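Render this sequence as a predicted structure.
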Amino acid sequence: MRIAVLRKKYTFHGGAEGFSSSFIERLAGEGHEVHIFAMKWQAGPSRKNIYFHKVPAVSFNSFLRDICFAALCFLMLKRQRNNFDIIQTHDKTLYQDIYRAGDGCHIEWLKQRWKRTGLPGKLSVISNPYHWLILALERSILNGHKFKKIIAISEMVKKNILDNYKVTPADIAVIYNGVDLEKFHPANRGKYRDEIRQKHGVSDTDFVVLFMGSGFERKGVGYLIAAVESLGLPVTVMIVGKGPEKKFKAPSSQRTGGKIIFCGPQKDNYKYYAAADIFVFPTMYEPFGNVHLEALASGLPVITTKNSGGSEIIKDGVQGFVIRQPEDIKAIAEKIQFFLHNRERLEAMSKNARSLAEEFTFEKHIGRIRELYKSIIDEKG
């Protein structure tokens, strides 16, 4: 098959972008001809059957960038329609066979944020033209039926779309992401645990809570820090990702408990899972979150929230815990403390975590995608 994949850019610290890169590599590895339409792709085509098409959208302003990218992709793909069997977008564009809602539902994220912010935050949401643009693009794609099929990466995202837009359940295929079970593995502890801990001044006996993700506000860094500080116990939090660190940093003299380390974006993120004891992700809104699968595959029990699609696969008390609301600081703190004082249960849940991750292979994911492609091509005749 000749497949076009649309995504604005690839950066190593972006979960959605990283998934797109792995997805493309897997498709190409099966012998399909894959064409990337993007503004920038740092990874670079690594196979002969992967082709990069630069979309010359402006990059200095997010509003202009997204509207240009959507418009230029429309013009480029419509002109080349007969060159491809499948056109799949991982962004909000206007011409495609498959719209993969990997970023979830923007209107739902704004609703979740609205509930948790004061008047200044609400005014910021209303007055920001970027939000209005993304909502307009989302509405144009979904209400305008600019797709043959939607891929929702969780049941939560499917429900969000059905609740907010004029689509039917038959329009949506729920296909969970896959994870690289070799790259993310419990055996990494023996290889990288000491290296990463020494790099950041963490002792071998410290209890380490890991957070990974870019977009600290949405993904709940503030809630995590507040939970750890409320414990008043020697817990170390390693925060890996890109975000406004100054907003969440406080002088160590003002901290009542816990050691908070901002590690920045890390290309070798699998090493950081190896250095941790548990993974905590108290997000306000997350369509699925590849970090859930990466943590599970690395043998880390996961504490997350109902506002994440990743919570759908985690059984409370088996592979980790699911908190109802991210602002429930007390519940997050209690679950962290549970692992701190119950090493046997932590080890049991670690094994359960790895077993669960093994159900979400990239091979299964690509198999589902292949079936979807075939059904769309058959419909086209």
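Summary. The mean pLDDT is 92. The longest helix spans residues 362-380.
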